[in-house]
Amino acid sequence: MSAGWFRRRFLPGGPLPAPRPPRPRASPVPYRRPRFLRGSGSGPGTADAPRRPDARPVRSPARGRALPWNAGYAEIINAEKSEFNEDQAACGQLCIGRCEFGAEEDREWLTLCPEEFLTGHYWALFDGHGGPAAAILAANTLHSCLRRQLEAVVEGMVATRPPMHLSGHCVCPSDPQFVEEKGIRAEDLVIGALESAFQECDEVIGRELEASGQVGGCTALVAVSLQGKLYVANAGDSRAILVRKDEVRPLSSEFTPETERQRIQQLAFVYPELLAGEFTRLEFPRRLKGDDLGQKVLFRDHHMRGWSYKCVEKSDLKYPLIHGQGRQARLLGTLAVSRGLGDHQLRVLDTNIQLKPFLLSVPQVTVLDVDQLELQEEDVVVMATDGLWDVLSNEQVARLVRSFLPGNREDPHRFSELAQTLIHSTQGKDDGPTGDGQVSYDDISVFVIPLHSQGQRSGGH
Amino acid sequence: MSAGWFRRRFLPGGPLPAPRPPRPRASPVPYRRPRFLRGSGSGPGTADAPRRPDARPVRSPARGRALPWNAGYAEIINAEKSEFNEDQAACGQLCIGRCEFGAEEDREWLTLCPEEFLTGHYWALFDGHGGPAAAILAANTLHSCLRRQLEAVVEGMVATRPPMHLSGHCVCPSDPQFVEEKGIRAEDLVIGALESAFQECDEVIGRELEASGQVGGCTALVAVSLQGKLYVANAGDSRAILVRKDEVRPLSSEFTPETERQRIQQLAFVYPELLAGEFTRLEFPRRLKGDDLGQKVLFRDHHMRGWSYKCVEKSDLKYPLIHGQGRQARLLGTLAVSRGLGDHQLRVLDTNIQLKPFLLSVPQVTVLDVDQLELQEEDVVVMATDGLWDVLSNEQVARLVRSFLPGNREDPHRFSELAQTLIHSTQGKDDGPTGDGQVSYDDISVFVIPLHSQGQRSGGH
């Protein structure tokens, strides 16, 4: 994503630079600082965090203890767009203690009784833009925010049904409207915790970047395996899919200026001052110019999914709030995503117009009931940043998974090798199973998560 | 829908009255003023419009001319909730003339050359509340609004691809950002016309009701067959489904305070003054009371799909913006739907708090590509108001369709008979194919639209 962001930011409106030629095929691993997160005993970690003075040391989501960890496999490459990799990853075991909401004595209790109450697994990909700072902070912070949010509701999560009152206090009046409760499930609390964790992490990033004088933002794609379910939380344009023998199922959807057009236009309709008179909220099939004045042209406003015609007025000639299409679509001419973390300081070039009010840090969360699947050994979840999906479709990735795994059953590193294979398939090699030799010039990060072992390992407490 | 609305409006917060017992089975058609819209030469019309002084005469969507019409079959019953039926229906042939957008000479041209340029079919169901006035106005008006909106874009609809400029004027500058156009399809113009027609009709209803000192609102479900496609536009809690031999496909989704919770809470977050300090925006599993103060209870805000816990403050004890669940969910304690037409004057009982800002008149439009289906003779679309769907599931309706039609192939009125059968299945008869004897006490309207004849007839120009 970030490549496009840079291109558009410094070449607004201009043609894109010619793509770089594919790397020579003789060099099998020609990328700078690739790093493989293999689980075999190495403990959880953050991938490819550059050694910058401001980068925090890699911390484990499991309170710094080295825990057995071999459930997720990743490969990350740096496309050499920038000195430091803007893609960041984190994974680890998620250990949730028993902790009552906000009470001082609980923190004491936690210190005295540090054993885990509920354990799960955590994988996260962050695709930065405007520098790696936000992605590094997110990789170092989000799991802690999530653990805290989960600990605040864990008593409800382990109940057969989360109680209305966390304290167990119950009101039973005679008036039925005060008695009947909506049926809320444990998974609703995990979804709520993920939503709150993203927001908390966004606030932390905002404060840290401001304090250190840095800038930037990142997308965030998180998978959490907990109590027999896999939760996928997405804010941005990364993607996770489930690949099984006979099924390919998207587990996330992308949030871009195009997919969130109506929300973004609606906000500009409610708060027109956000555009400072420099942009038009309306969408047209292309940028309008003086010759179009007075013509009846196609347009869409915030309440419309269809198109209509209108007479072009002078204000319609302004730069569009959302411009371009597909990978080139930009919010305020600047940003290619509409959800993510950071970007608190981001402004439209040479103006005071802020991007942040249009960005949401709230993820969309989907739930996969792993315990209900009849899992096969080669059922996997593939998580990857947009660089992969620009070049490979869900079906192409599924074909690569299905052609690779059965022939490598004895290889203990086969999921890692598969992650490598997926990335290599985006580097213009036309002899792979996809056979079309498409090339990605973006940073790419991939997790391959085998569900079979997940189903066996996760979920207990 | 309206039954619930009345109940809750006059008994706020109280228990619902006991349901009326089912009608005696010996009386096969015991309802007041049922009316069957059979197509055999009777021409288009509006069903069951009461003879009120303010009710306009029934007009045909086809500019008042009697046209051959036998493509839609409806049955409407009045559940005797009110003197006049709050359910209204309209159907007819939709004849769209060639008309340039807004120009004076076009109206002249239309008068001189009145022949149709494009024809389609139109079916609409309106479920009123607070009286039948809005539903009657909608049944008499919406098709005219739609015809007008379609005539404004018809030149674009019949082009291979709708032109950016309706006038055909083309700008070809050298800068690529002014050249590349988004690919917009003819169906996007029809969707836009439906969206605009609903809004226009809503404005007409607002003006007419104000001028005549009447009140009320209605839901609207519209199907339009045009150029080989079926467009289903829905604002409210009616529903349309496609029933085929091996497939049941929803063609609409319902808009209620529950399904639109986040949009409604978001609006109250942006404009808290809309609640006048009388309601809380937050959702809780049940209404809170004094005993809950200071407790940690489950809640949801506008940005949350999941649930979390919070300490109850005094402001949380206010009546919730959305209260109740399922069929009992109410917006501001008053209304069971969140989209529709009318309600411009509707206020929360004994307050000045308006409902209208929370209601959308914009429909959601889905498109069924009829030409791409391999149609069988018994493929139908069933459109019905919520009274039917309260009692029968999509699958139950499909079973009734599949068991009824094959045995009645020779009956020229079989689609009408099927509409009757569907309604009779909601009146507590336990000997029908559904066998569960559920009872609906709401007005019910049903259209059964055979697609096979549609596919053969519609689409030309």
UniProtKB/TrEMBL annotation, chains A, B:
One MF term in the entry's GO annotations: [pyruvate dehydrogenase (acetyl-transferring)]-phosphatase activity
Record's compositionally biased regions (Pro residues): 14-27
CDD domains, per the entry: PP2Cc (cd00143)
SUPFAM superfamilies, alphabetized: PP2C-like (SSF81606)
Ranges for region Disordered: 1-63
Residue stretches of biased makeup (Basic residues): 1-10
Boundaries of every PPM-type phosphatase domain copy: 100-451
Domain of life: Eukaryota
One Pfam family recorded for the sequence: PP2C
One GO CC term, this protein: mitochondrion
Name of the featured protein: Protein phosphatase 1M
Organism: Callorhinus ursinus
